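In the current project phase, work has continued on tokenised descriptions of protein folds. One protein thus recorded appears below exactly as we store it.

——
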Amino acid sequence: MSNSKHRKQRKRSAGSSKTSKVPQAPLLFSNFGKKPLDLVEAGYSKDHKFSISTCSTTGAKLTSRAVKRGQLSTASVAAQYKYKDATINVIVDSKSPISTTLTLSRKFLPSLNISASLKLPKYDYSTISTTLTLSRKFLPSLNTSASLKLPKYDSSKLQAQYFHKYAALATSFSLHHTPKIQLSASVGTSSLAFGIQTKYEIASRQFREIDAGFSMTKPNYDASITMGNKGDFLRASYIHYFDHKKKVAAAAVISHRFSKKENALTVGGSWIVDNITTVKARVDDRGKIMMLLQYGIKSKSCLTIASEFDTKSLNKIPGIGLAFSLVL
């Protein structure tokens, strides 16, 4: 009797797990080829960065940051305070003495989130940038957001995203003196999707950009081919994972520009040695080799070392970038 009860319970649990699964929508067009590009581009920098952060139990956080980019050095101090649904950010740097951001967020319903962020303006003494952002989730598959920036309202825009089992749609409307509407749509499944993206100018009544492509996503690889700039630019990207935990991966990105008859190729790989150590490397067709080592010292603290070596300029000293982030 006990065995039969256990079998029935297993069947019920298995049936409930199957019905509880929600089908995934296809990727948005903006995410086509994102994983290979992140592997060969993200994190490689010859800048020297240092940041230290301290947090308190009351919700206050203080971050000091210094960056050296070539011969130019900048420094900034950021203070953040969180109280319930409110977040206040104050930034003081060497270029803009004071920049203050006030963020308010409230969750009215499980499916309704509203947030607003306000950046105080800068005149000759401080940065002027006011940003108001409102986001709302009407349905589990529909996300909408609106951002208003003053006094430079050119970058203000309205956004909406809709996800379905076999389709994903995204639209963006810019509040510019020559307004533009960006539309993107992809159809298919979570493993194979075809997408298109375009920009339409209301003033001239013309489509300025038309991009198209497809993406194939599997547990052990991700491949995509996209065509942009009205067919002048073609890019193919591929990433392959050699284990189910995705600790070892290799990626390749190749592009061709028909008008200039130019080709570009970048090949890279990554290895997650353990929970705190990651190694990455890449090489491109120009003969530049870049390597990256990321080492986690403790929770949310890490040391990143990146180096660049030009095989076509052997007399040139290799560039070395260093980034250290410490959270106390």
